[in-house]
Amino acid sequence: MKIQKAKVGQNVRLKVPDIDRAKTDTESIIAVVVDVKDNEFYQLGTKIGVHENFIKIEEASKDKKQIMNNSIHITKGQQYANLYPWLGEGLLTSSGSKWYHHRKLITPAFHFKILENFMNIFVEKGSKWYHHRKLITPAFHFKILENFMNIFVEKAEMLLQILDGKADGNVHNIYPDITHCALDIICQTAMGVNVNAMRNKNNEYIKSVYDVSAIFLWKAVRPYVPEFFFNHLLPLGRKFKADLKVLHGFSNKVISDRRRLLKREQQNLKKDDAIGAKKRLSFLDLLLEASDGGKILSDTDIREEVDTFMFEGHDTTTASMCWTLFLLGNHPDIQERVFQEIRTCLHEKQTPTSINELNELKYLECIIKESLRLYPSVPFIMRHIKQEIQLDEYRIPADVQAILHIYGVHRNPDHYVSPDQFDPNRFLPENSTNRHPYAYIPFSAGPRNCIGQKFAIYEEKTILASIINRFKVTAVETMENVKISTDIILRPANGVLVKLEKRPI
Question: What does the entry list under GO cellular component (predicted)?
Answer without folding.
Answer: endoplasmic reticulum membrane
